[in-house]
Structure to design on (147 residues):
């Protein structure tokens, strides 16, 4: 047993039972974005969160413990993603990454946006010409220090 096998079991149960990530998140007490990442093996749950997820997806006590192990982060199987939706994110960073970097540096100085002190919000934005995906990424700015 490993973290990947627990993730596969969660996904299998989700599909079989028709569970929605937003419903899981409400029961866990976290955002749907964080909860989904945790269930997909990219975040570390505490014992209570692991127990709630375990009850929802029929996980054993041992499988719940795997949800509490710090994961090896990075869920993409290849350097350039092949899934069309994920590839579009890769494309966004390829096309706009230097612009994002330039504007962050102009506004904040030399540093990075944290993916640790970070939040994300994904919402459906109705539009008569076709609904839009509204994604807000918010990360703490961490300046490089001089020494």
């Amino acid at each position: 047993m490993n973290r990947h096998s627990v993730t596969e079991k969660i996904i299998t149960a989700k599909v079989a039972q028709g569970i929605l990530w937003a419903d899981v998140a409400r029961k866990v007490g976290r955002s749907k974005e964080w909860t989904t990442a945790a269930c997909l093996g990219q975040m570390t749950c505490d014992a209570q969160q692991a127990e709630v997820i375990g009850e929802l997806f029929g996980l054993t006590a041992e499988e719940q413990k795997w949800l509490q192990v710090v994961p090896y982060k990075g869920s993409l199987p290849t350097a350039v993603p092949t899934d069309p939706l994920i590839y579009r994110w890769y494309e966004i960073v390829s096309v706009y990454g230097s612009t994002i970097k330039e504007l962050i540096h102009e506004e904040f100085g030399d540093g990075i946006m944290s993916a640790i002190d970070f939040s994300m919000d994904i919402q459906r934005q109705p539009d008569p010409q076709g609904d839009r995906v509204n994604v807000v990424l918010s990360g703490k700015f961490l300046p490089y220090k001089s020494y």
The chain has a mean pLDDT of 95. The first strand starts at residue 111 and ends at 125. The domain at 3-66 is CATH 1.10.260.40 (434 Repressor (Amino-terminal Domain)).
